[in-house]
Amino acid sequence: MSVVPADVLPGALGAEGGEPRAAELGPRARMWPALVAVYRAQLSRARVARIPLLFVATFQSIGIMVLMRGVVDGGGEAESVVAGSSVLVVAFVALNLLAQYFGQLRASGGLDHYATLPVPPAAVVLGAAGAYASFTVPGTVMTAVFGCVLFGLPLAHLWVLAAVVPLAGAALSGLGAALGLLAPRPELATLLGQLGMSAALLLGVLPADRMPEIVRLARDLLPSTYGVEAFARTFGGHPDWAFVAGDLAVCAGVGVVSLAVATWAYRRAAVR
């Protein structure tokens, strides 16, 4: 039998013999270690569904480009189709699947598990979003290469995807997580995620020049639009890198705001 000093037990008397002393909790985990831990846990959990996820997200975008090949010959419209289809892989996961995940997590009481852990709410949101977005990288690259070959576009600046994928993914992941956490039912979270992905499909893949003015305004409100524009600008012979950097900066700003909203939605859902 082990002997525990009485002064370390919950409710033990203070050294002065006075009132009972409350038990002290351990310190909360720091942001970066907590984020890495949640990311690894979510990555292991989602690894089982990796192959179906990559197959659906990638071949959906490739199929859209094949269909658009009969309508679009080349030029600026082809650049929009390839860029939009590539970013659509990110939108499929960040908006659709992440909204479903957080909606089901809230409905099943899974948020109670995270609420008992000494991790910051932002680490939970960022870790889950980063894990799901990580699976989009191979599909996005494969879609971009296939589209460039299909439409005869240059492959020289595909490296810009290293900035487009995380920044557009952050903006869309925050939006998808917020939709899942704010939806009162998981079915509604699934519906909102699918509607968001459909908006990314219609407003991102179709050439903007053929859209009515009111639809163009709606397109400017979609976070993925700026990732599409940044990628599409790099297909020219002499890309205007200032505009590319500007579009990526907008993606980064929207990503910060959307992830902040998702963190607030997590706190709101966890205390209910």
Q: In terms of structural class, how would the helical and strand content be classed?
A: mainly alpha
Low-confidence runs (pLDDT<50, min 5 residues)? 6-16, 22-26
Gyration radius, to the nearest Å? Answer: 23 Å
Strand content: under 5%
Count the strands?
0
H-E string = HHHHHHHHHHH
Mean pLDDT level: 83
Assign a percent range to the helix content.
over 70%
- Biggest sheet descriptor: none
What is the terminal-to-terminal distance?
Answer: 41 Å
Question: What does this protein look like?
Answer:
72% of the residues lie in helices and 0% in strands. The protein has 272 residues and is mainly alpha-helical. Residues 6-16 and 22-26 have low confidence and may be disordered.
Characteristics of this structure?
272 residues, mainly alpha, 11 helices, elongated
A few lines on this structure:
By secondary structure, the protein is mostly helical.
Secondary-structure topology with pairs:
Layout (H helix, E strand, L loop, with lengths): L30 H16 L3 H20 L5 H33 L2 H6 L5 H14 L1 H16 L9 H22 L3 H20 L7 H9 L2 H9 L8 H30 L2
Helix pairs in contact: 1-5, 2-3, 2-6, 3-5, 3-6, 3-7, 3-8, 3-10, 5-7, 5-11, 7-8, 7-10, 7-11, 10-11
